[in-house]
Amino acid sequence: MPYQAPVRDYLFLLRDVLQLDRYANLPAFADASMDTVEAILEEAGKFTSEVLAPLNGVGDKEGCTWSPDFSVKTPSGFKDAYAKLVEGGWPALGSDPAYGGQGLPHVVNVAFSEMSSSANMAFSMYPGLTHGAYSAIHVGGTPEQKALYLPKLVSFQWAGTMNLTEPHCGTDLGLLRTKAVPQADGSYKITGQKIWISGGEQDLTENIVHLVLARIEGAPAGVRGISLFIVPKFIPDADGNPGERNSVKCLGLEEKMGIHGNATCVISHEEATGWLIGEENAGLKLMFVMMNEARLGVGLQGLAQAEAAYQAAVAFAKDRLQGRSLTGPKNPDGPADPIIVHPDVRRMLMDARAIIEGGRAFMAWTALHGDLAHASPDEAVQQKGRDYMALMTPVVKAFLTDRGFQVCSDAMQVHGGSGFTEHFPASQYLRDVRIALIYEGTNGVQALDLVGRKLAADGGRGVMSFFAELDQFVADNEAAGPELKPFIDGVARAKGELQEATMWLMQNGLANPDNAGAASTNYLQLFGLTALAYMWAMIAKAAQAKIAAGDADPLYANKLVVGRYYVDRILPETSAHLAKLKTGAELMMKLPAEAF
Questions:
Q1: Fewest CB atoms within 10 Å of the CB: 188, 400, 515, 580?
Q2: Selected catalytic residue, list 114, 293, 357, 440
Q3: How far apart are CA 146 and CA 148, in angstroms?
């Protein structure tokens, strides 16, 4: 069965769970009525299902081709699909109208981005990284830089990349060696090699705008001496069109496990001409605008690949005949029953659906708070939005990619031996999604960021606000009927365990930092499970309200079943994570290094 975009699920989320219409009085939401959003998502579903999805396997099999002239050819069909992407205005959904964007809330763009990534993860990375470059220039660029670059990036006439990693340094950017030498005209000469640059060279756009981290001569050592530069592939001429070729070259492509349709490049800057963006030695802070957006986008990739793999597994489970149901034949006229009748197959499918639908709500809820951080006239709401975006970013990135990979693995398991072959799509989903656990900061780094920085930020204001919100939700729904009580109880219990884990970290992490490091991954998983419990409680409340109002759409009854499955079968994992993190670091660190 070909990929089907989850349009109906998003409409339920945006209309009934998050109630987008209640923000209609805010200028940023003025053009995002649910009628408009529904029309956008219907068309997004058609575009991603009909244009992008058929190219997913093509990109995987063909990959990208590097030529000795330093050019890169993308897989067959990608150029035409990219032209249709631009023609449809999809890249401009959430961008600033001052530069040609449509100015819609990011939560709407998230829906399109999930559909795009589910349909074709490798293809969707090209526009995804361009939007990140747009965001960094929008925040830190001069008026002249914005006027020159943003309209071309918003339209996706030009692409953008992020140049961070070097052969000798990954996460520890303080070790980077790429240098920038000031020139008399205010530009800089950039020299250095960058690796793992997604979309670093391609044949889709007329120009590529590289955002490059480099160190100006004489700058302080470490991360305090890093600046950010705009280094275009073609230097814009006086009219703002691509002019002289810059000395930026793609030296080759990485041979990767997955996402073959995306060009992952080794980029050489050989005294390339670049322009400082933002202040000297403050480049990392500005790059984090792009990196944090990318981290949320990577979390979305985990969710998106899980959705695509789940759909493939359901189709296979309904079609594959093997064995008989334990409670008697369900396909008596056939030689065997479809494997979807077997409880263990149902376990994998239900695990997947509970994580996907709860994770989709978590992603959209987080994006909405990001919108309110900019759009609300209430300073308290703005502050809460900023706090939540900081706090939730590592959770969204790591939790949704960890769980997304597990869903893809289970989808392969549902396929059995067929899934291990390239005749079925399960293999590609598993290979493609695996990178999401690694890039933009490995999931272990995300966990360290959560416990080492985000919890303590502003005196713990963000996490305390989240606890207060959960407590208020439980208090407001204490009198809920029997259909909702398990959800409310699940939120209360998970919140209690998350709060206990937080207190343990405060008491034991400061005394011995290894305790915080040892507990970090379990803490992040506990946080993600609790967040999804809250999402499922809100989903269940909205679904039950629709049922009580007489709506017979089976979607609502199905939500209650899947949500109860999450509460009863998945949420109990919180207790295990709490128990493990409280064991501390002693046994983890006890063996000497030479004993390994």
A1: 580
A2: 440
A3: 5
